[in-house]
Amino acid sequence: MSEIAISLTNVSKCYKRYNRPLDRLKEIVLPGKSRAQEFWALRDINLDVAPGETLGIVGQNGSGKSTLLQIIAGTLTPTTGEVWVNGRVSALLELGSGFNPEFTGRQNVFFNGQILGLSREEIAAKFDSIAAFADIGDFLDQPVKTYSSGMVVRLAFAVVANIDPTILIVDEALAVGDARFQARCMKRIRQLKEQGVTILFVSHDSASVKMLCNRAALMNCGSIIEVGTPKTVVDHYIALLSSENTRNNQEILSPRKRLELNQEKQSYTKIDCLQKHRHGNQLAVIKDVNILDANNRQVKTIETGSSFQVLLRLQSQAKLSDLVIGISIRNLMGLVMYGTNTKLMNCQLPKSDIGQKVSVRFQLPCYLHKGVYTVTVGIHSEEGFSYDWIDDLVVFEVVNGNHCEGIVDLNPSIKVDVETNDVLCLMS
Questions:
Q1: 6 exposed, middle or buried (CB, 10 Å; 0-12, 13-18, 19+)?
Q2: Which of 18, 33, 360, 426 has its CB surrounded by the most CB atoms within 10 Å?
Q3: Residue 401 · residue 369 · CB < 8 Å
């Protein structure tokens, strides 16, 4: 058992549902007769998760995913079966669960940390890193009830991801965060994975499950119906959605979650708010970065098959003769879609004096499939000394990539050969 991080044996969870509140009272006063309807949220779950494994859990809404995670986290008790968990569990379940809305963010950090088993001294030692990750500014000392949903999930994830968990459980709460924060969360999850943390990851984002997880489990109607490779399980999940073809089962991101995500997207050029997420010796500094279309208009969305530009403005703080400027485009999982710099493209930048301002424009065709992407920008010397570097500074969305799968649109053409007895017909 020491080689297992989580073990579930015949775990089931039953809820009682009453037609009227009076029926519940009658059952208490007159025992012996059940007046409730039984609803089995989970049925005979058997699952073992190895230490250091990342397990993705997919399934339709109402399939039992959240109930299962709550039982593993210890916030729910199973009706039948045995649960064995080896290690400190850190869980991000329902939005803001474990937070007292009347407490400030700071108070909730200490409150939540103690619930997770840390002493006040341990929490105090990690507080600065938690506050920096959440990045909610002065709201940290305001009551949580004044937070937006995005701010709540920022603080909640900052706590669970920075207390050195042995087991990390992440439900779908990250879907309400803005795109830049989602990218930072995924980066942190990958770091924890590399450190050997056991991770349970629930998401409707099939691509994230495929790229992040070692194994995946498909849940349906309270049961685990398949465990296997992420690709196999996700394909089965998509087939299950397509076969049922109902509105609830087709939901990938609900309209409400999409609206919140769009409202939470931050400005494309707010350099000042990202001071905590940049590094370099500042001999040259990034002043502004924008995404432009082919007509030099600032845009937030790009169509697959069009062209776009990344316009970067910088200012030298010293006399420099070896500037190299680069960009890296990543998806929300942190996978680099494309990266280049002026040196690789044999573009020699002019020498710069103190205070000299330089603009560099990268012009690119968009072969990306639909999705949300971030742009990391950097300035360094030819020897590799970093002047300024900001991760995931710009966020943009690619749209209209509806005729393919994957991460890039290769824009293929199709030719069909029709053979008959008399002639070969070609159709394009």
A1: buried
A2: 360
A3: yes
Residue 161 has φ and ψ, to the nearest 5°, of: -90, -5
Residues 140, 279, single domain; the answer is no
Supply φ then ψ for residue 329, to 5 degrees.
-100, 125
CA–CA distance, 292 with 394 (Å, rounded to integer): 12
d(CA 173, CA 201): 11
Report how far residue 63's alpha carbon sits from residue 345's, in angstroms, rounded to the nearest whole number. Answer: 51
Q: 417 is written with which tokens?
A: 């050969």
Q: Look up residue 166 and give its DSSP letter.
A: S
Question: Distances in Å between the alpha carbon of 118 and those of 69, 88, 125, 128, 146?
Answer: 21, 10, 11, 15, 26
Same domain, yes or no, for 102 and 60?
yes
Do 235 and 300 reside in the same domain of the chain?
no
Q: Say yes or no: 384 and 326 in one domain.
A: yes
Structure token digits, residue 336: 């680099």
CATH code for the domain of 197: 3.40.50.300
Of 45, 49, 21, the closest CA to residue 35 belongs to 21
Evaluated on CA atoms 120, 126, 131, 134, the torsion sign reads: negative
Same domain flag for 189 and 47:
yes
CA distance 244 to 246: 6
Indicate whether 170 and 309 sit together in one domain: no
| pLDDT more than 90, % of the chain | 45
* ∠ Cα 55 331 90 (to 5°): 35
Report the predicted TM-score, pTM, of the whole model to 2 decimal places: 0.70
Beta strands per DSSP E along 144-283: 167-170, 198-202, 215-220, 223-228, 278-279
Q: CB within 8 A of 381, min separation 6: which ones?
A: 320, 322, 323, 324, 387
Do residue 225 and residue 290 come from a single domain?
no
Inter-residue contact 165 to 37 (CB < 8 Å) = no
**pLDDT tens digits for range 201-236:** 998 777 788 888 999 999 998 999 999 999 889 888
Largest CA distance in the chain: 89
pLDDT average, residue stretch 402-428: 72
